[in-house]
Amino acid sequence: MGKELRLSLNTEHLYQRVLEHTHDLVVLTDIRGRVLYASPSHERFLGYKPEELVGTNGIKMFHPEDQGRMTLYLAKCLTSSKPISAMGRVRHKDGHYVTVEGIGSLIREKSGLPGMVLVTSRDITERIGQEEELRESKQKFRIVVEYSNDLVVLTNPDGTFVYASPSWERVAGYDPEDLLGVDAFSLIHPEDHETARKAMTQGLVTGSQSPVQLRLRHKEGNWLTVQGVASVIPDENGEPSMFVASCQDITELKEIEENLRKSEESFRLLAEALPQLVWTADPQGVFTYCNIRWRDYAGSSLEKTQEKGREDAVHPDDWERSRILWKRSLESGTPYEITYRLKRAKDQMYRWFLGRAVPVFNEKKEITTWIGTCTDIHDAKTAEEEMRHQALHDSLTGLPNRDLLEDRLQQALNRSKVTKKPGALIFLDLDRFKIINDSLGHHAGDALLSEVGRRLAKHVRPIDTVARFGGDEFLILLPEVKGQDEAVKIIKEIFTSFKESFRMGRRQVHLNTSVGLVLFPQDGKDTATLLKNADNALYQAKESGRSTYKAYNASMHTRAMQKLTIQSELRKAIKNHELCLYFQPIVDLNTQEVVKAEALVRWNHPTRGFVLPNEFIPVAEEGGLIVEIGEWAIEQSLLQVK
Predict the structure, then answer these.
(1) What's the angle, vertex CA 200, arms to CA 196 and CA 205, rounded to 5?
(2) Tens digits of residue pLDDT in 342-371
(3) pLDDT digits over 282-312, tens only?
(4) Is the dihedral of CA 275, 279, 280, 283 positive or negative?
(5) Most buried of 153, 318, 460, 605, CB within 10 angstroms?
(6) Each residue of 129-140: b (16+ CB within 10 Å) or e?
(7) C-alpha closest to that of 409 among 492, 514, 491, 532
(8) Against a cut of 0.90, is the pTM above it?
(9) For residue 128, how many other CB atoms are within 10 A of its CB?
(10) How far apart (Å, rounded) are the C-alpha atoms in residues 322 and 335?
(11) Backbone angles phi and psi of 302, in degrees to 5
């Protein structure tokens, strides 16, 4: 009886109503891929009107990377007797791409030659089936229904099957012929009967129903989860004659949802067990979860954190940097990483944390959530800062060392180039410190150096740097001065402070200092030149009687080079036998007899002739050559006496 009823229906109207509820995109092409027909659903899902697609090359609709594969896919359809499935990315009219999964079938002409290719596709990006409206001929509607991936069914008002699409065999294992006359409720899970009856009642009242989810029994006994919609087909009098329904198998989607739920639960259990502060946020950066470690540390619930944000927890000095980096990551979708301080609620103390966050993307490369952690690195950070401090500061005085001084001097030079304002470098050396160190001992000498450092620091500004350069040498960097007078004023203040004795236990020690002064950039445009010229100025101060200062000038460099030349040539003079002795007799005035002689060293330079003793003897004393010259003079004197 069911077969007779199906044959009596207006077939074209039947298929047209069926296709109105399908979720597929249907395309009919010739053997070269030219579109002969495109279903109306293309406009709903891809933005194209069917008439815009007819006559176009269907393969060109796909992403450039997929077009080669689609060409092979068309060739397979033309040579296969079975439907061929494939997946690709189709361009929407607005420019973005939609991923579809389709089945292609060959339609042969009466002669048996390949005629057309029918492709039914489904948008699998959102896993939502779409109903298609077809306005084509009876044959096209029948083909679409037969190859649809949806479970299409026609039932009497009492729920008995009148028609079942071929997809029932592929999806649920039933031969469509075997379902004719079967009560649809016998395939529905007993717990879903009430839902199905309400849907049928709604359909009778309104003519259509909202999508419902039901469980259908597979022929092998397992349950499929389907989502479907149904409409009432009226007879000529407008009375309900049957229901047409289209159901999409969402079993896999439901499994994914369940696995996702379990995964989220596993994540929460793991996050609660981790020692780090763990949190998640939505694409806009608003907290959606924080574990118990975070709540205990920050003393804030998730709701309060969402309301106030993280600003209350982040150290004020770190907040702006944190905000900028977080904003940059949100906008670019790149991982977030920062080292900052977070306030502990129980004692209001700040501790150092390493914060990291990574985005989670969906299939469209859209961020769905952020997962972040904060790892306590306070102890390591404190140790690192201590090591850095030790590396850049003098262990005895606690003052910046040479490395830090040179770094700050370079920064001052760079800043001076921009501001066009001069800076100054003061080079100090403690006069006769070695005598104090040797007589009172190294411990007393160390204490004296520390006290000198503290006393120097009292005469500088917060922007200035007092550094121990090594031994009994100190440097003062004035990164910005109005001119030489301002630097000299500070030097004079230092001289005044040194007039006050230094107390070393029960002893009082008086100490003086010699000072060299350079200005930048006029006396040097790099650190090496400035330090060298400051040293030259200091040397001239010592040469001038100590306890004074000298400002650098170009002549100092000339004298320094002369001294260096004399020192170098004097070393050669000893080896090349350029030195000679002159004996000056010493006469006893009472007897008028020569009682002894004084040996005088002279230097007979090969090009300059005799060099005066007052030119080379001080250089020999300073460079340590005087000992070697003295030994040579003694040896030569003894030889000549013989």
Answers:
(1) 145
(2) 998 888 999 999 999 999 888 888 898 888
(3) 888 888 888 888 888 888 777 777 666 677 7
(4) negative
(5) 153
(6) bbbbbbebeeeb
(7) 532
(8) no
(9) 15
(10) 13
(11) -60, -40
